[in-house]
Structure formats: structure tokens, C-alpha cells
Amino acid sequence: MLHEVAPGVAVWLGTGEPGSPNAAVVSDDDGVTVVDTLLSPPQAAPLADAVSQLGLPVPRVVTTSSHLEFVGGSACFPLAAVYGTPQISAHLDQPPNLEGCRRLYPDQADDLVDVATRPVSHVITEAAWISASAVAVPLPGELDQNLAVQIPERGVVICGALASFGTTPLAFDGDPGRWIDSLEVLQGYGSVFVPGHGPVGSADDLRVLQAYLAACIEADGDSSRLGPGPWDDWRARHFDEVNVQRAAMLRAGDHSPPPAMLRLLGLG
């Protein structure tokens, strides 16, 4: 079900668990912008049905990340232009690692068969208006080049993969330090923040995420040294080890995937 968070802006809420993300819909005179398309076509089909009931065309899909949770249902919007950063575009020119994703999201494994993601058609390299109300903003975070969508007149920021509220984020492909800086930028863009996972939140939720990422850096490669905080009650705490390893490896100049992530994918 779509939940309106501001005039013309609605959110499709997942459960918050890994593999059950959020999506968002922005309505303008020329049609609907869909921000993220969930994990798979079976997961995205009800979203596409709800969007069709708005009675508007879907000229645009924005992908905030190339990871499958945010693009796996893109085939459900076959006529839309697909917006993404150069990095997202490069990743989506390759087939998804379905076997690894089935390990990462075992509850959705049955849906992850023959998933084909659509390529990016419109590359965003700097902040740009993509509709009468929406601005796409490239920022580093969960990737080197994520996208957020700002709706300035309505005070809404669709963070997508750049935010996770109540669920541990997964930073294996990003930089926790630069992610903290991006979250600071996002706080100046609005007052209502739609995360990729979890409930719609406020700037306070972004600040908690910043504190978590800082704690991952301070743990210096040892997840047992991750200090206490609001994240103690978050879902998916098994991602802590990945995030802590990633931060320490980047500090040492190593950009390879963290061993903990390779284990989760069945590669280590």
C-alpha cells in the first residue's frame, strides 16, 4: 500500500528486514517518478499495481543504488526512463549475482530466479531537476555514487540506499566516512526523510545513522569493539562485522570486499 507523506509524495514500506526495502512515488503533471523498485519482480508487482491505480504514466524510475534490493523489480516499469549515477549504470550493465543474493536474503530466495534488471538510460553526474518537483542528487555512501531525490517544495528527501532506520546498513561497497558527510548534507535538504529500510523519519534518525557509522570506524576492524547505542535494538546486526571491516580496510588503503561480506555471499 502507498502511504502519503506529503502532497504528491507516497511511500511503499517494506518490513525493514534485509530484502524487504522501501520504494517511493512522486506525482507530477507529466506522470509519476518511482524511486527504487524493490528486490524482485514478484515483490515489485503490487507496487506497480498501486502506481497504475494513480492513473498517470510512469516516465521515470530513479535508482538510488545498483544493489538488487533497489533495482530488482525494474522490469515492472518497462516504459520508464531509468536514472542512475555512472557507477550505478556500470553495475547494471552486468547481470546480478542471484546466487549471492539468495544467500543474503534467504527469505526471498524463491523470488530470485531469472531476475533481469533494466540498464540506466539517463546518467546523473551532478544535482539535476528530473521533474517539476524532484531533484536527483548524487552522493557517496552505500556506494561511491548513490542517488538521493529531494522534493524541495514539500520538504521531503527520498534517501533510498543512503539511509536505513532501525535496520543495520550494509557498507561493503561504500565508505562509512564519506557516508557520514553525505548524511550531513541530506539534513539540510528537508525535514521528512524516506529511508531505503525502515519507517519514514527525521533528521534525528540521520544523526543516529551517522553515529553508528562513526562507531564502525572507531571499532578499528574489530566488531566486538563496536560501542553501544540506539543500534543495539536494530535488525540485521550480522552486518556489523562487514561494516567494521570495510571501514578499517579503507583506512589501510584496501578497497577489496570485506571477508565477512564474501562469507555472507558464500564466496569465502
Brief overview:
The protein is an alpha/beta fold and 268 residues long.
What does this structure look like?
The protein has 268 residues and is of the alpha/beta class. Helix content is 28%, strand content 21%. Strands 1-2-3-4-5-6-7 form a 7-stranded mixed sheet. It is globular. The model has no long low-confidence stretch (mean pLDDT 97).
Q: Topology, pairings included?
A:
Elements: E1 2-6, E2 9-12, E3 23-28, E4 31-35, H1 41-52, E5 60-62, H2 68-71, E6 81-84, H3 86-92, H4 98-104, E7 122-123, E8 128-129, E9 135-139, E10 146-151, E11 156-164, H5 176-187, E12 192-197, H6 203-218, H7 240-251, H8 259-264
Helix pairs in contact: 5-6, 6-7
Average pLDDT confidence is 97
Rg over CA atoms, rounded to whole Å, is 17 Å
- Give the end-to-end Cα distance, rounded to a whole number of Å: 39 Å
Order of helices and strands: EEEEHEHEHHEEEEEHEHHH
Helix content: 25-40%
Structural class: alpha/beta
**Quaternary structure classification:** single chain
List the keywords.
268 residues, alpha/beta, 8 helices
